[in-house]
Q: What sequence folds into this?
């Protein structure tokens, strides 16, 4: 997978866990790994959700560490 923003060109695995439809969009949940040089991190799985919009598939997760969240961080 290639991204507009580089993610260190890491390798890993991706598995779509489920596909579902909401009133706003078709969405998918996926589990993925990121290969690291540290063997302790090699088995770590992460999850994310993406939805199909007018410009294609986009991440459906908000970034919690933005300044506008203020004290909620």
A:
């Amino acid at each position: 997978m290639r991204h507009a923003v580089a993610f260190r060109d890491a390798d890993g695995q991706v598995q779509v866990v489920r596909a579902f439809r909401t009133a706003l969009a078709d969405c998918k949940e996926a589990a993925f790994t990121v290969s690291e040089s540290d063997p302790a991190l090699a088995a770590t799985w992460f999850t994310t959700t993406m939805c199909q919009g007018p410009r294609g598939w986009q991440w459906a997760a908000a970034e919690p560490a933005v300044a506008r969240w203020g004290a909620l961080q």
